[in-house]
Amino acid sequence: MNLSSIFGQPRATSMLRSALERRRIHHAWLFAGPEGVGKEAAARAFAASLLCRAGGGEPVVEACGTCPSCQKLDRGVHPDLVEILPEAEAVARKRIAREDLPKAPSRELKIDQIRKLQASLSLAPLEGPRRVVVMIGADTLNAPAQNAFLKTLEEPPTGTHIVLLADTADALLPTTRSRCVRVPFAPLPLELVAERVAEQTGDGLERARLRAALAGGSLGAALRIDGPALESRGRILEAIEALDPADLRPLLRLAEELGGKGREESELALDVVALFYRDAALGAEGVSDDALANQDQAALVRAAAARGAEDALRRHRLALRAKAAIGRHAMGRLAFERMLLGFVMPEEA
């Protein structure tokens, strides 16, 4: 993998190429932007440029892809590329077994992992003059772990380059951010995501566009949206639109159904709801059906739009608020109940 293979992030790749061309390569980098837009792939491509042997010991702008170093990187076995990630992510990627952990896998990067990394960095690189550390989910570092890492981040061992990957850079302490060169990663253009989804899944372009819109420009998130979730979308939206404040029993049943799933499924359901009411707000302002993400639900969108843009935007905000609550570990059922009650009883929102 090299930098030319990274698509949809011209600003980020231009910054990295410029640093490599001028041989002014900072020791600490912060790749910041939404999940699934290419940060991890770019970090590996950048690492390849630093570790490739085609430059005779110097970094190259584009890794050759054929030298022993590049081949080891492609196979994921290069000893001088160190990847650190939260236990829960490592379990999800099958890098470690859940049974090997003494307790539930942590979603945070822990201070013990930082200390172990620091101990390993005290040793020289194994195959060349440089080593690259890629910290996946750096924004999950808690404050003690970040404080323990500051000295290493400011003055790493000679030849060590550290790349922090963060979906939410502001979750990092200012002292951590200030020690890094920040490389911004933007959401990918929806049409580009849709094309890639169609290529990789065989979906038709309309369905692929819906995935792209639900994922907010994240290719990774778009590819994770499964078929059943999309198939149940129409039924869920119809059930929401049919809710009646005079009888809350259907509302409570729907909240139980939607909130009783895993976090990722609940968040996807809320993305579906938020996107639907964004479409309704556009429809209320006279936007044509062709511009809607939910083109297959155009009649339902028009019915929701008939209540006006203000109502649609209010519901959109409530859906985003519910998603944020679940992200803060609120109970899914309660988050959905509060949202749905806000839909049918505006004074309760």
UniProtKB/TrEMBL annotation:
GO molecular function terms listed in the Swiss-Prot or TrEMBL record: 3'-5' exonuclease activity; DNA-directed DNA polymerase activity
Organism superkingdom: Bacteria
UniProt protein name: DNA polymerase III delta prime subunit
InterPro entries: DNA_pol_HolB, DNA_Rep/Repair_Clamp_Loader, P-loop_NTPase
GO biological process: DNA-templated DNA replication
Gene source species: Vulgatibacter incomptus
Pfam short name (any one): DNA_pol3_delta2
